[in-house]
């Protein structure tokens, strides 16, 4: 019985760690996309001046 509980806890821990990593990666990707869009917008504004 203890082995089954240990396995369940381990699976939950791995699942939560994976969700954290995926969420963190999405956040970083969004941050970089926003920064790239801002740079492109500044370039367009410079060209239009």
Summarize this structure briefly.
The protein has 49 residues and is mainly α.
Could you explain how this protein is built, in words?
By secondary structure, this protein is mainly alpha-helical. The chain is 96% helix and 0% strand. The chain contains 1 helix and no strands. It has one helix at 2-48. The chain is rod-shaped, with a radius of gyration of 21 Å.
Short key terms for the protein model shown above:
single chain; about 50 residues; mainly alpha; about 0% strand; rod-shaped
Q: What fraction of residues sit in β-strands?
A: under 5%
Number of helices: 1
Distance between the termini: 73 Å
Q: Find the structural class using helix and strand composition.
A: mainly alpha
Rg over alpha carbons: 21 Å
- Please summarize the sheet with the most strands: none
Uncertain spans: none
Helix content: over 70%
Order of helices and strands: H
CA-based shape: rod-shaped
Look at the structure and give the mean pLDDT.
Answer: 93
E-strand count: 0
């Amino acid at each position: 019985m203890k082995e089954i509980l240990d396995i369940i806890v381990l699976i939950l821990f791995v699942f939560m760690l994976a969700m954290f990593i995926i969420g963190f990666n999405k956040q970083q990707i969004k941050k970089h996309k926003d920064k790239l869009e801002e740079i492109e917008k500044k370039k367009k504004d410079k060209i239009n001046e």
